[in-house]
Structures are given as C-alpha cells and as structure tokens.
Amino acid sequence: MKYETVIGLEIHAELNTRSKMFCGCATAFGGAPNTSTCPVCLGHPGVLPVANREAVAGTMMLGLALNCEITPRSVFHRKNYFYPDMPKNFQISQYDIPLTRNGFLEVEMEGYVRRVGITRVHLEEDTGKSVHIGESGRIHGAEFSLEDFNRAGIPLAEIVSEPDLRSPEEARAFVQLLRAILEYLDISDCKMEEGSLRCDANISIAVDGRMGTKVEIKNMNSFRSLSRALSYEEERQRFAIERKEALVQETRHWDDAAGKTHPLRSKEEAFDYRYFPEPDLVPIEPDPAWVDELRGRLPELPQDRLRRFREQYGLSGEIALMLTGEKALADYFERAVDAGQDPVELAKWIAGDLVALLREAVVPIQSCPVGPRGLGELVALVAQRVISGKMAKDVLREAFETGKGPYEIVEEKGLSLIADSGELESVVDGVIAENPDAAGDMRSGKEQALKFLMGQVMKKTRGQASPELASELIKKKLSG
Amino acid sequence: MDLIFSDALEIAGLIKKKELTAVEAAEAFLARIDAVEPEVAAFINVFADTARRRAAQIDAGLAAGEDPGPFAGVPIAIKDVLSTRGFPTTCGSRMLEDFVPVYDATAVERLKDAGTVMLGKANMDEFAMGSSTENSYFGPTRNPWDLERVPGGSSGGSAAAVAAGEAPWALGSDTGGSIRQPAALCGIVGMKPTYGLVSRYGLVAFASSLDQVGPMARSVRDCSALLGLIAGHDPRDTTSITEAPVDYLAGLTGNVKGLKAGVVKELSSEGIQPGVLESFNATIETLGRMGVDCAEVSLPSFEYALSAYYLIAPAEASSNLARFDGVRYGYRSGTEGEDVWEMYDRTRAEGFGGEVKRRIMLGTYALSAGYYDAYYAQAQKIRTLIVRDYARAWGSFDLLVSPTSPSTAFKLGEKVDDPLTMYLSDICTIPVNLAGIPALSLPCGLSDGLPVGFQLMGPPLSEMKMLDLAYALERELGFEARPPAL
Amino acid sequence: MAISIEDVEHVAKLARLALTDEEKETFRRQLSDVLEHARIISEVDTTDVPPTSHTLPLVNVFREDRARPSLPPDEVTRNAPWAENGAFRVPRII
Ligand SMILES: [Mg+2]
Ligand SMILES: [Zn+2]
User: Fold this and answer.
1) Does the N-terminal peptide bond of residue A136 adopt cis geometry, omega within 30 degrees of 0?
2) SS3 state at B418
C-alpha cells in the first residue's frame, strides 16, 4: 500500500491598514478592551459598512503576487452564525465570487519545486476576541468570557490553497514563503504569535491514490506548532488506516501543550452559514487601470529574489533562502554587497554569526548595531589577512556589543596576524623544542601532529599567527 | 387659525415672520398630544421638556439674528426606527425598550440642521414588521378617523400623529408599503423615495435592499419640502446615490397636461374593496379632466411580487436582527441559563414578538441549505422580472397609478392572527420596493367615512414629476385631511 | 409545502430562538402556509433570468483608509446588559 499525505491550507492574514475594513476605527494591536470601537464595528442598530479602499487594493496585490486572476466583478456575502465575538452575528466575507482566484505558488524544497494551486484570495472582516475567565483560563471550564471588539472589523485576507501539499515540511515551507510575500508587499505584520497570521489545514492520507477522509486542524499558532500538528495528525491517520480504523471527517483542535489534536465539538454549532449577498455593499469591478497600477506597485518577490541571489551572487540555496525569507535581511545583505566585499563571504557572516547575535540579543536586523558597511570592514580585514577568521568572530561580537567599527576595534587592540616569517620562526622553533614527541611524529610523517603543533603556535601568539605561514614553517623544519 | 392643522411650511413662515415663536408652536402640539394620546397612542416616547428647551434655543437664536435653519422651530415626529442620539430608540420592541443610541441617523441629523424640533418617537410595528401597528410591544396605535380601527403600518404612529394634528409632519420608513399604506389609511400624504435617494444610515434595518426613509405630511407641498431636507448623498451609506439634490418644493408647477399615466391592471381589479375601487376610478376620471391621459397597463409579474417579497424581506431580516443577542446592548434574559447559547435563545425568545420571530424563522428557512435556490434565489429572479415589467411600462407611461391599499382601515384584531391575510394588505405597495422605484400615496376621498389612498409610481428619481402630479391632483380633489373622530 | 416540527426546531436553532411546543406548532403551520403560497414563484420559468439583489447601478464605492476617533469607553458600554472593565460579559461559551 502506498500512502500519500494530502494537505491544503487556509490562511488568514490581518492587513496592516490604518483603519478597519468597514469603519474608521484605528487598527491598533493591544490596547484596553473596546477602546478602538464605534457603532459600526460594534454592530449597533442602523449602522452601515463602507469598504476600505486600501484593504481591497492590498488583497488584489496579494492575489497578483500569487498569480491569481482579478475577478472582473466580485461581491461581498454575509456568513451567518452566532458567536459572542461577532458583533452582528454575521461576518461580511466573500463566497462564490472572491476578489481574486485561480493562482499558484511555487515552493522550493530540497531538490525539487512544489507547485501549489491557490484556489482564491478573498477579503473579509476579523472577529473580536473572547477572554475566558476561570481557573483553566481556556474556553473549556471557563466560568464566563469577556468580549473585546478592538479586533472586530480589521481587514483579513483569506488565502485558500488547493490540496497540493504532500508533507508537513512542504506546508511549513509554503506558509513561510507566503509570510515572506506578505512582508515584501508590506500589507500585513504577519505575526503568527499575535494572531495577525493564522493558519488552518485540511489533511488526509490517500492510500494507493484513493482520497482519504479529510480532517481540518485549527489553532496552530506558530510555524513550530504547524509542523508538529501536521506531523502528529499524519501519524494518527496513518496509524488508524493501518489498524483499519475508520477516520471521521471532523475539525480537530491542536493542543500545543499536550502535543495532540483533539476533536473540536461544540454541541451548539449548527453549520449552515446561510450565505447571501451583502445588501449594504455594492459590487467591486476593478477597472484595468487600477489593476495595472497595483501590478506596478508589486516589489521583487521573495521567490524571485531567491533565484536572483543564487544566480547573481552564487549563494547556496540554503543561505539564499534564509536571507530572502526576511526582506530586511536580504536588503542588509545587498547593501553590504554594494560596499564592495565578496557576496558569498558576506552571506556566510550574515547567515551565521550575525543572525546568531541578533537572535541572542532579540534585535531586529533593521536596528543591528553592526551596519552593512561594518560587516564589509570585517570581511575586508579577513580577506586582507589582517586578522584570522577566528579573530573576526570576536571582533564582530565586540562590534555588535559596543557599536564600534571593526577597523576601530582592530586598531585599538593592535590586532594583526604575525606575517613576518622571522618573528614567527623563533616561535615555531620554541614550540618544536618544547614538544619533541609531536615533532618526532611529524618527522615520521604523522600529519595529524601538525594540527597539535599549529595549536601550540596559535596559543603562543594568542591567535595572531598567520595559519598558512605557520604550517609552512613547521612543515619545512620537520619534513623528514 | 388652527395651528395644529396648519402645514409645516405655514408654521415655518409664521416663525420666520416672528408672528409665532418656536415655543408657542411646540406648546400647541404638546397640548394636542396630551389631549389625544390617551386615545390615539401614536407615540412610544414624547420628549416634551427637551422639545421645549430646543424650541426656546431656536427662539433665542432667531432673536439674536442667527439662522437656525429653514424650518427653525417646526415640530416633527420621528418613527422610532431611526437612531436618535441620547433619545430612546425602541423599534417598537421589548428588545430595545431601554436602548439609547450613541449616534444620530443621517436623516435625523439633517432635520436638526434644518432647525426642526423633535416632539417624540412614533409608534410602529416591531422592527417595522407589520401593516397595522398592532405588532408594537408598547401597544397598538389607533386610527384617528375611527379609533376602533388600525392606522395601518408599520409607520402607523407617524401617520396617526400627523392625521390627528399631533405633529405637522413626520418621518416614516417603507420596506413594503410601511409609509404609503398607513398614509392611505390615515388620509395623509406619504412617499417612499427611490432606493438610495435618502440615506439609510441610522435606519434600523429590516430588509436592507428594500428599506427607505420617507416623508409623511398633510400636504404635497410639505411632503416635497420634507423630502428635500432628507434627500441627498451620504458617504456613510454605500447604497446612497450621488445625484445632485433637487428643490422639490420650488419645482412644483401644478402643470401636468399631457402626462401619461398607466393604470396597473393587476393592482386595481380583483381583491380590491369596492369602495376603494370606486374612489380610485373617480380619481382616474379627475386625472382625465386634468388632461392626464390614463390607459390600462398590465404588469404580469406582479402576481408573484408578494411571494417574492415575503421570502426576500424575511431572509434579510433574519440576518439583520441576529445582532440582537443580549451582549452589547438591548434586552437580556434574566434567566441566562448555563451557557451563552441558552442566553441567546432565551433573550431572543423573550425580546422579540411573535411576528418578528415568525419572519426570522421564515427568512432563516428560506436561506438555509437546500432551500436557498428554490426560495431566496428564485425570489431574486422574480425581482428581476418585476424590474423589467416596470422598465417596459416606462416606455409608454410617465407614471403608473393604483390604489395604495386594497382596503380602507380595518378593525383592530381583525387580521392579527392570520399572517397571510395581513400580508395581503401590502399587495399594491410591495412591487415598488422590489424595483427600488419611488411611489407616493395621496388621499383621494372617503369610503364609508374612511380615507382612501391613491398611489403614484414612477421610474427611478422621478420624484419631482410625481410630486408635481400629486400637487395638481391634490388641488383638484380638495381633500380635507381632518378626522372628525377627534 | 408542509414543513415538519424537526424543520422548525432546526431553523429555531440556527436563528437562536427558544420556542415552546405551542410556538413550534404554530410556526410549523404558519410557515407552511406562507411557503405554500410562495410555491407559485417556483412555477415561473426563470432560466437565464439573472437574480436582482440590488436595484442600484452603483459599483466600487469605497472610503479612504483614514482612522477616525473611536467611541469614548462610557458610550461603548452605555447600553450593555453586563459590562466588566470595558468588556462585555457573556456566560461560558462551551
Ligand atoms: Mg474566513
Ligand atoms: Zn469602528
């Protein structure tokens, strides 16, 4: 029997417009409960929605970035269901005629490319938030809930993919690329933890090409939980199939603490949304000029930049992916390249030590104490053999902590490689005299002794010896 | 002269000429309200003190040479379905018994700017669902022409208030005839404007694609003036049209020779009370004498209008009224039950009256899975056929005419237990809302002492032409809109 | 078109209305009547008749993305049946 995991994703991204989707309330994150609400987003009797032009534009740009067609005439629909975080007990969304549809996204995996169909990208309004009060702090076992509508009415772009993903890894890569695209377009903050980027998944296991039972997974609030939840569910379903247990088509909730999914059953929910055209809004018919203008506003997208970084700078796929995954990081890299140093070296330093330092200090690249020129200096120092790679690591850390430039630091500390053979020769002689055994091994051709002797030389010179010159001297003196 | 039966325009003129103060005007109507409210019950809330205070401010303004607006000091009644900041807005429902809005409807704002003085909020069928004003949580309004009879509905309070001299004019709302039918039954002028001409912002929604706010008055001139005050684009209403405003009052010429009027066969034959038909036909003859040529026209799709309406309107209503859940405002059941779902179920069961529940049920059913296409979608297509029938008629007629209501005012309790029969009282008015066109009801005579309404219908934005014909006809008919009962 | 008590109960659940048994029966009867009357529209041939959800010619009506002041807190909860430090309190959801 051949098993194939089949995953489709439904992603909600909060758009970073100044005002809400249908009213003028600010879209501030956080803030005291209901301080960013008005009669419209509280659903007071008699109010009417008026659509935010920027939200429509942003959604169309996203559609274009995902190779979707812009629907010539789309309409809003009402999705009717009761829930305490819903001010009107219906959500203004889109149903059979979304703003954009029929696109695709190509996701680079190790050694292959996965082309994922984009069913649709549509626009809708966000709900409020329920805070569950009770010792559990969760919806289960809560005594009551407090409703905050600050988030209600914030524009949401909903991206629905075809079930074209074949593994949790592909799903994760897809969402990471989508997140990068949203960031490049600057239409969303994409903070999964803050809920501005939310992901639901449909997952099933096809056996010998026969479609399996589809299960919907909710509440995956980070890339990590996305991978974990999907892997767990993949296992659960395969296991059930092997044991010939019937799977139920259901919605399951990912419990990050427990590391399990469990059925999300609410006795009260009757699923019949009674969609019908929103009579308070008129159709959207984007004229070609507007669409062209939006297409013109599209920046270079991460997938294109990735390709360019590999070709133009000869970066490895892995490093290029890491750099282009975050726009600011890629921008930093290209500014450093402009400063004239070797791209591959620069990329290595950024992807390696610099990102590590940033993570450690929880600093975004935008406010990195070591600017692109600074990093350029560092790479130059190594290239010109003024300092060794090992010394450079320390210089970078100091530069990061003090904000001083690498040149400045090397000056102050008088750091430099001992490249003068006369001076180094005496050190080497000393080391050979102090380590007769190693010297002996070396003479009798035991190459590994070289490593030891080199280490001793470096120790004596506090790392400032030119590695090439040192090993040259040792070999010359001990070649039997 | 008898102030309480004077036109709003006369009152405005007297106040401008300083022959009458705003306070005197307010007092006159408040006194009338005190006198007849026990019998008529046209208001849910009367704001006597705030009305006096506002009138005094206006007098002060006038004395100081300010311009408090073209209708400074003219009293008005507002249907309790329009949001009034700081004043209770109940929609005739227990659900909103104590609800005090935090914002003004656009129409209300414009009336304030014009200097009018709100006397109170007029009674109505709960959430505008009804044709008799018997579906009000606060009790029925009675017809000033016969207190045993209904004023029609759902704007029955507004119509009765104007007919009884409790207010010179009023605002109503019309979703399937809720302005025109009570205007007809109470012997006043009422108009449902083109959909989109008057902002719906602040009009508590019944059926969003059909609702319109409109004027109710004792004369065509007042009706024209009031429409002029509330019409015009509003950026807060996406469905508000952008056409430039028209001075309807200035546009009244009374010169209607050569106009072509189509008598709608489907609305002026079977199912119409003989007395109503009689004065309707008499009015057609009058029109003929006035040089308007009238010919019969058939609009076959009208046969289906009522059924389509009673699917579309409840469907939209079921969604519009979902927001009344006891969370953010309004009534909440005292016995919450064990979870939010029980709280919802009880709150809505206790907060809504029978007719509202019936329509929510009907609309929810019509939209629910498996029935959408057979009911809601099919009704939307019927709507297209009705629009087309009208469009065809405009090819050969300037306006269409019919009785406004198949009967004169009926007895309280007569139809209240039989929804279907009650729904039939909207038979003549409903096609207009489905097509989004303007229509007006003009009193055209009495039948057994009860007013009969004559309905004019016209193409989108034909309000001026329609008002002009009504103006001419009004003068010809010389109907004395003064109920003897009071 | 006669509808059953089960239909009535399902619809009442969607509409969040608690109904007594008498109400269920009354609505069952009345809704059946109205739907029966509505059946005449299903007899109309509407093939290639587009639906009308709007009688307006309007399209593309938007507001610019400008933030306006929101409501002062006291007005947000002024009409609330049960407010707790600025939020709306509701019974447990599950
Ligand atoms: Mg959604
Ligand atoms: Zn708002």
Assistant:
1) no
2) coil
CA nearest to B404, candidates B420, B421, B387, B425: B425
Q: d(Cα A469, Cα A474) in Å, to the nearest integer?
A: 9
CB A124 within 8 A of CB A11: no
For residue B248, pLDDT over 70 is answered with yes
What length is written for chain B?
Answer: 486
- Measure the CA–CA gap between A5 and A163, rounded to whole angstroms: 10
CA pair distance B359, B363, nearest whole angstrom:
6
Closest CA to A432 of A461, A467, A458, A457: A457
Catalytic position from the list B136, B155, B158, B178: B178
A145-187 confidence digits (pLDDT tens): 999 999 999 999 999 999 999 999 999 999 999 999 999 999 9
pLDDT in the model for residue A389: 83
Confidence of residue A268 (pLDDT cuts 50, 70, 90): very low
Mean pLDDT calculated for residue range A21-35? 93
Question: Contact at 8 Å (CB) between B189 and B470?
Answer: yes
Per-residue 3-state assignment (H helix, E strand, C coil) for C25-77: HHHHHHHHHHHHHHHHHHCCCCCCCCCCCCCCCCCCCEECCCCCCCCCHHHHH
Q: What is the distance in angstroms between the CA of the first residue and the CA of the last residue of chain A?
A: 64
Chain B neighbours (≥3 Cβ pairs under 8 A) are A, C
* Residues above pLDDT 90, as percent of chain A: 74
Would you call C40 and B303 a contact, using CB atoms and an 8 Å cutoff? yes
Half-sphere exposure in the Cβ direction for B70 (13 Å, CA)? 12
Give the closest of C15, C37, C79 to B307, CB-based.
Answer: C37
pTM of the entire predicted model: 0.92
In 3-state terms chain A splits into helix, strand, coil percentages (rounded to 5) of: 40, 20, 40
Instruction: From A300, A290, A275, A282, select the one nearest A184 (Cα to Cα).
Output: A300
Residues of A in contact with B328 (CB under 8 A): 42-44, 87, 147
Strands (E), A213-259: 215-220, 251-255
B186-203 confidence digits (pLDDT tens): 999 999 999 999 999 999
Asked if B457 and B432 touch (Cβ cutoff 8 Å), the reply is yes
**pLDDT confidence band for B360 (50 / 70 / 90):** very high
Measure the CA–CA gap between B407 and B423, rounded to whole angstroms.
Answer: 13
- ipTM, two decimals, is 0.97
Q: Is B178 designated active site?
A: yes
* Least confident residue range of A441-450, B71-80, B464-473: A441-450
Residue bearing tokens 């450079």: A392
CB of A129 closer than 8 Å to CB of A150: yes
For the stretch B52-91, pLDDT in tens is 999 999 999 999 999 999 999 999 999 999 999 999 999 9
> Which of B83, B93, B154, B441 is flagged as catalytic?
B154
Angle, CA A202 vertex, CA A197 and CA A205 arms, to 5°: 145
- Is C16's CB within 8 Å of B304's CB? no
Q: What are phi and psi of B162, to 5 degrees?
A: -70, -45
* CA angle (A228, A234, A239) in 5-degree steps: 125
Distant-in-sequence, close-in-space partners of B468: CB < 8 Å, separation ≥ 6: B251, B252, B253, B254, B255, B256
Query: How far is residue A70's CA from residue A299's CA, in Å, rounded to a whole number?
Result: 18
pLDDT-based confidence at residue B465 (cuts at 50, 70, 90): very high
Looking at the complex, report in whole angstroms how far the Cα of residue A208 sits from the nearest Cα belonging to chain B: 34
Bridge partners of residue A13, in order along the sequence: A157, A197
| Cα angle, residue B444 at apex, residues B442 and B446 outer, rounded to 5° | 130
Amino acid at A438: A
The closest alpha carbon to B172, from B209, B142, B206, belongs to B206
- What does pLDDT average to over chain B? 96
Question: Per the CB < 8 Å rule, is B385 touching C16?
Answer: no
